[in-house]
Amino acid sequence: MAFDWRSNVSLARETAGVISERVFLGRYAPGQVLAQQRLSEELGVSRTPLREAFALLEHEGVVQLDSSGRATVTKMETTNLREALEFRELLESAACSMAIDRISRSLLDDLLRALRNPGTATPNNASRVHLLLLGSSANRYLQGFSTLVRITEEVHLPATAWYPANSGKLRNLQIGILEHLAEADGKAAQRRVHDYFNELQNHLAASERPAQ
To answer: How many helices (H) and strands (E) does the chain have?
Structure first.
């Protein structure tokens, strides 16, 4: 019996992409159980590629699977979020010098305009800063962490209590990263990357302190 493995993998990957995009957009919230039967009917796929999609999403940190195969959108505790940001800081600071000669000036300018306009300064545009940095590195291993960027920048950080009041300052730090990249100053961009993640870590640490 012949199997069309490429077709099966493609369907699972496509299904995983639809589900993850819904998570990024807030349609599925952290901690929400994803009912297999309902999703199977809604997306028009059988249980097999849906289970394969869940396995892909678990590997990427978007969902968690229990022993029965039930999928729940990952709910990242503060400790896990801090560790994810520590890892991202290492990746993105390393990418700065690699991206200097490769980054698209047109994409960079478009993103700067979006961030400088409060009406278009969304979590999605915030994550695009970091995706552009990793993507411009031309290193496929760095580029492979795009889901980690999106799940932290678009889902878990905006859900923290302190984020709305500090989003403007964070956005200014992201603008600084882009401005230094536009100036081809990798060291300065790297310093701004560290400033950005230090700001996040300080807020996370403060949120863990008991109220006085």
So the answer is: 10, 3
Angstrom distance (rounded) from CA 31 to CA 73: 5
Distance CA 149, CA 153 (A): 6
Which structure tokens are listed for 133?
């940095």
DSSP state of 25: T
Q: What is the 3-state secondary structure (H, E, C) of 119-158?
A: HHCCHHHHHHHHHHHHHCCCCHHHHCCHHHHHHHHHHHCC
Q: How many Å apart are CA 166 and CA 160, to the nearest integer?
A: 11
Q: What 8-state DSSP symbol labels residue 46?
A: -
The model's pTM is 0.87
Q: Please compute, for residue 123, the number of CA atoms within 13 A of its CA located in the half-sphere on the CB side.
A: 19
Residue numbers of the chain with a pLDDT score lower than 70:
1-9, 210-212
Strands (E), the chain: 33-34, 63-65, 71-73
* 3-state secondary structure at position 9: helix
Q: Which two tokens stand for residue 65?
A: 């699977």
